[in-house]
Specification:
Largest sheet: 13 strands, mixed
Number of helices: 8
CATH architecture of the largest domain: 3-Layer(aba) Sandwich
Order of helices and strands: EHHEEEHEHEEHEHEEEHEEH
CATH superfamily of the largest domain: Gcn5-related N-acetyltransferase (GNAT)
Number of strands: 13
CATH topology of the largest domain: Aminopeptidase
């Protein structure tokens, strides 16, 4: 028999074990998540025969619309099923229970990022729509000029980063994160050798921001770079002066102009709990989710 319910603090060690088995994230990152970001009650668990078989964190976030509305949504994170118990439908049942749990609390939607491209079909079968995309670009260090045009890039804290992020994305359809999740990104970025940065590319440009990590292959990943699109290459030059690598990977909002060789990639999905919102945004919306903490 499968029992689905909010978790309790004494179950966190089992959740950490499950997380490690499924995703392989370092223990300090997992510890930070539970210590600073997510109380035990925000994690739903599926218990089978006295063992937690599946889990998912339901994190509060806000979907902001171009019209200025602030819609309460839940960002589903760390959906995991014990590899020894997969194939039994536990994750699907957990998602169904999470839907009702969130509906009862007044949420308008659930958003998530599938862990791999192949899982988009799985989540579509559970009633989720494609909603969030980003534009991906790649720069080799050998293609950069080394001229940043006199701009500056400065490490900043999560609060300043989030303020710059909100200002840049205002007027678009995007996911707005609480401070705790920006702090999680800061922890992950710094642990990899990167960080959160204030980006000033020119005297006449608004201040931008970048969340940067080194990948396991030694590439620099700009998980989010927000600056005017005409200044994007100059911003990459700034990053390259600060953080050496052979390759620079870049994500920007899908609706912004890109470079030769870039492409738009579906990224996040959404399940609407309000039929009017689904009719309004369901088919043609291209929202921005950004960080994803992937």
């Amino acid at each position: 028999m499968l029992t689905i319910r909010p978790s309790t603090p004494n179950e966190i060690p089992r959740q950490k074990e499950l997380w490690k088995k499924c995703f392989g994230d370092p223990a300090p990152y997992i510890d930070f998540f539970y210590d600073k970001v997510c109380p035990a009650g925000q994690v739903m668990v599926a218990e089978a025969d006295g063992t937690i078989a599946s889990m998912a964190a339901l994190l509060p976030a806000t979907l902001r619309t171009p019209e200025g509305e602030a819609l309460p949504v839940s960002y589903l994170y760390a959906l995991a099923t014990d590899p020894d118990l997969q194939g039994r439908g536990h994750a699907r049942e957990l998602l169904q229970a999470a839907d009702q749990h969130l509906l009862d609390q007044g949420y308008k939607a659930m958003a998530l990022v599938p862990a791999s491209p192949s899982l988009h079909k799985f989540f579509a079968a559970t009633g989720m729509d494609e909603c969030f995309a980003h534009r991906k670009s790649e720069f080799l260090a050998s293609s950069l000029s080394g001229d940043a045009g006199g701009g500056t890039i400065t490490p900043i804290g999560p609060e300043e980063y989030n303020a710059i992020r909100e200002a840049y994305l205002n007027g678009s359809l995007y996911l707005s994160y609480p401070q705790e999740l920006i702090e999680l990104q800061a922890f992950s970025s710094v642990a990899s050798g990167g960080g959160l940065y204030r980006v000033e590319v020119a005297d006449d440009a608004e201040v931008g921001c970048a969340a940067i990590e080194y990948t396991r292959h030694g590439d620099v990943l700009m998980k989010e770079l927000l600056t005017y699109h005409q200044y994007t290459r100059r911003a990459v030059e700034l990053v390259a002066k600060l953080l050496p690598a052979e390759r620079y990977l870049l994500r920007t909002p899908a609706v912004w102009e890109g470079f030769s060789g870039n492409y738009t990639q579906p990224f996040g999905m959404i399940k609407w709990y309000d039929p009017a919102l689904q009719r309004r945004f369901g088919e043609n919306a291209i929202g921005y989710l950004g960080l994803a903490f992937d």
